[in-house]
């Protein structure tokens, strides 16, 4: 890790100014991806901008048909929050499946969504619950925000401030975890809304988060594991690595979806 300047802004404007001050800059939230990348010299920022002192971008509140969570809210805080537990219990339970206690007490929801790792959990939740990702500059719908592996709609220096999840009637997450990293080899979040719409978000299986329209259509008519029995996801564009091939990942998507629907 090489030398770098450390900035600790106390306003969003100060953070944006530090990012634009020259050289390569990086925002630090929980740091679980950035710091290892810096140690291995995959990232070498001239300025590291610690966002932890920014006010007003932590916490949870219920507003109309959405549950809003501040970007610097940790996974542990999401899991423990009484409003999350009563409004979207599936989201609280899903947060408990992220990493281990050390990761959950340091990692942030905004950091995960900004990084957009294809095996991270929150992108599946954001897509399935039709989330809105608000920043210091714009508001992005989840369907437009995620743009492939580690790619998002964020512009350089744009800071996520809060995430608004559309509140479902039922929701649950099922995850086939790597035993060491606890990242998802496949993770499936399903949400059913009061108007009958069903959305299914899948992570780990492909190069980025995606929806499964055929499963959504089947579950809209019958929200039960029986409705998707025999439904097979096309494996053509799925990942293959030392952990699983595309056909096995396609199979896991069906198993995890059935588990999630059963839990919901």
Automatic annotation (TrEMBL):
Record keywords, A-Z: FAD, Flavoprotein, Oxidoreductase
Pfam families: FAD_binding_5
UniProt cross-references to InterPro entries, sorted A to Z: CO_DH_flav_C, CO_DH_flav_C_dom_sf, Diverse_Substr_Oxidored, FAD-bd_PCMH, FAD-bd_PCMH-like_sf, FAD-bd_PCMH_sub1, FAD-bd_PCMH_sub2, Mopterin_DH_FAD-bd
Keyword Zinc carried by entry: no
Regions that span the bilayer: none
Name of the molecule in the record: Carbon-monoxide dehydrogenase medium subunit
Lineage, highest ranks first: Bacteria, Pseudomonadati, Pseudomonadota, Alphaproteobacteria, Sphingomonadales
Residue intervals of the FAD-binding PCMH-type domain: 1-170
Record-linked SUPFAM superfamilies: CO dehydrogenase flavoprotein C-terminal domain-like (SSF55447), FAD-binding/transporter-associated domain-like (SSF56176)
Keyword Oxidoreductase attached: yes
Organism of this sequence: Polymorphobacter multimanifer
Single GO MF annotation: anaerobic carbon-monoxide dehydrogenase activity
E.C. code: 1.2.7.4
């Amino acid at each position: 890790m090489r030398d770098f300047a450390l900035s600790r802004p106390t306003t969003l404007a100060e953070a944006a100014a530090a990012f634009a001050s020259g050289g390569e800059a990086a925002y630090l939230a929980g740091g679980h991806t950035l710091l290892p990348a810096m140690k291995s010299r995959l990232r070498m920022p001239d300025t590291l901008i610690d966002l932890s002192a920014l006010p007003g971008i932590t916490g949870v509140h219920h507003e109309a048909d959405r549950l809003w969570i501040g970007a610097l809210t940790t996974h542990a805080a999401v899991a423990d929050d009484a409003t999350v537990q009563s409004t979207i219990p599936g989201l609280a339970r899903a947060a408990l499946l992220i990493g281990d206690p050390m990761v959950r007490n340091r990692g942030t929801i905004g950091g995960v969504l900004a990084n957009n790792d294809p095996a991270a959990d929150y992108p599946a939740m954001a897509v399935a619950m039709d989330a809105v990702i608000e920043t210091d500059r714009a508001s992005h719908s989840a369907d437009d925000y995620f743009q492939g592996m580690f790619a998002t709609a964020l512009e350089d220096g744009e800071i996520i401030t809060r995430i608004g999840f559309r509140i479902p009637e039922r929701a649950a997450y099922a995850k086939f975890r790597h035993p060491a990293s606890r990242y998802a080899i496949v993770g499936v979040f399903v949400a059913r809304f009061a108007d009958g719409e069903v959305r299914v978000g899948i992570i780990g299986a492909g190069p980025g988060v995606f929806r499964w329209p055929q499963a959504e259509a089947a579950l809209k008519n019958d929200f039960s594991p029986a409705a998707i029995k025999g439904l097979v996801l096309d494996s053509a564009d799925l990942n293959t690595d030392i952990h699983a091939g595309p056909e096995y990942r396609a199979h896991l998507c069906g198993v995890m979806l059935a588990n999630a629907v059963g839990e919901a």
